[in-house]
Amino acid sequence: MKIGLVGYQGCGKTTLFDWLIGRAPDPSRGGVQSAMASIPEPRLISLANLYHAKKIVYALMEIVDIPGLARDSVGNAARLGHLREADFLVCVVPTFDGRDVQKEMDGFLQEMIFADMEIAENRITRIGEQKKKHLPREEQEKLSIELGAIEKIKAGLESGNLVSVDDLTEDEYKLTRSFRFLTEKHRMILVNTADDETDFAQYEKFSTPEVPVIAVSVGLESELAKMSPQERQQFLDEMGLVSTDRDGIIRKLLDLSGQMVFLTAGEKEVRSWLMTKNGTAVEAAGCIHSDFAKNFIRVEVMSCDDLLRLGSEREVKAAGLNHRESKDYIIQDGDIIEVLAGK
Ligand SMILES: Nc1nc2c(ncn2[C@@H]2O[C@H](COP(=O)(O)OP(=O)(O)O)[C@@H](O)[C@H]2O)c(=O)[nH]1
Ligand SMILES: [Mg+2]
């Protein structure tokens, strides 16, 4: 799971990146950088106590920071190119800088449309060159389908439409998905407010089901990160400021990007694992080990909340709350699973 940060120069991307991964702020690291943020899961500590586990392992999420976009658009397609592999985009809007959320968002979209258009145009030129060669008929046909798809995508982009899987046939999608068009990715807006902002709710009006909005004062948080917990509280009280819970924001990013965690627990370790929401038992088994997916027999499931409430596996079983499931079972957030696999 890769989360890409998008925004114009100086919007606070690198400051946000450092805050999310829990590193001391260092905006001088201006290039492309990526790091893993561990996904907070308070239930793992209680689970570790219950199992007398030797180790707690947290699921990780990759965050990618890129050089900020230029307001004159020059070089932006190349900067955005670093986000092609990202699964989800966080677009950072600096209202601390007096920016208008809607205008800024429209600006990002235009930059992403330009970047996608460049990819489409380059590919059309390449296909044109390839088609001149004496290729076997099958390959010629494949190239023709791809060309049709890319031309359709390009025409859409030119009229301001984002790339959408819904507009492509299955064959067209298969042949073009490797381009990882930016405008096809799910995204959200993170409003970077002034340090003294206390009314974060005012930004909810920009939120839509497709593009949710959250507001954080990234600058304030990066200052608070340098303080001890006591200093922090005193500072907030004295200044009348409101801090944002970092763990809550990471969990929110996880949720909005369509991911969730499931758990495994034993004496050796208790551990959280990342997977796509609505994923199946066999997919979860594959996250743990590819052999588990290949030789999957069944999975034993109980909910972490039931276990913590009742205090032991035995009690969960006595209450009939454990269940045995096959490949297609849909894993729920917070399920503790034990995979039974053959050899
Ligand atoms: N006042 C204020 N300054 C911020 C905030 N976030 C970032 N900055 C400052 O803006 C400058 C650019 O931030 P940076 O994270 O490097 O932006 P980037 O270009 O998007 O990576 C730095 O000097 C930050 O300290 C904020 O929320 N409030
Ligand atoms: Mg930066």
Please summarize what this structure is.
This protein has 343 residues and is of the alpha/beta class.
How would you describe this protein?
It is a single chain. This protein is α/β, with parallel strands linked by helices and 343 residues long. Among the domains are: 2-39 and 60-102 and 185-255, Rossmann fold, CATH 3.40.50.300; 278-341, Ubiquitin-like (UB roll) (Roll), CATH 3.10.20.30. 41% of the residues lie in helices and 20% in strands. The chain has a six-stranded mixed sheet with strand order 2-4-1-5-6-7, with helices on both faces. Strand 8 and strand 9 form a beta hairpin. The longest helix has 32 residues, at 101-132. The site of magnesium ion (MG) has 4 residues, from helix 1.
Query: Do you know the CATH architecture of the domain at 2-39 and 60-102 and 185-255?
Result: 3-Layer(aba) Sandwich
Query: How many DSSP H or I helices?
Result: 13
User: Count of DSSP E strands?
Assistant: 12
Would you give the CATH topology of the domain at 2-39 and 60-102 and 185-255?
A: Rossmann fold
- The averaged pLDDT comes out at 94
Radius of gyration: 24 Å
- Element string (H = helix, E = strand): EHEHEEHEHHHEEHHHEEHHEHHEE
Structural class based on helices, strands and sheet pairing: alpha/beta
Percentage beta strand: 15-25%
- In which range does the helix fraction lie? 40-55%
| Strand numbers in spatial order across the main sheet | 2-4-1-5-6-7
Characterize the biggest β-sheet. 6 strands, mixed
The parts where pLDDT drops under 50 for at least 5 residues are none
Silhouette: flat
Which homologous superfamily in CATH is the superfamily of the domain at 2-39 and 60-102 and 185-255?
A: P-loop containing nucleotide triphosphate hydrolases
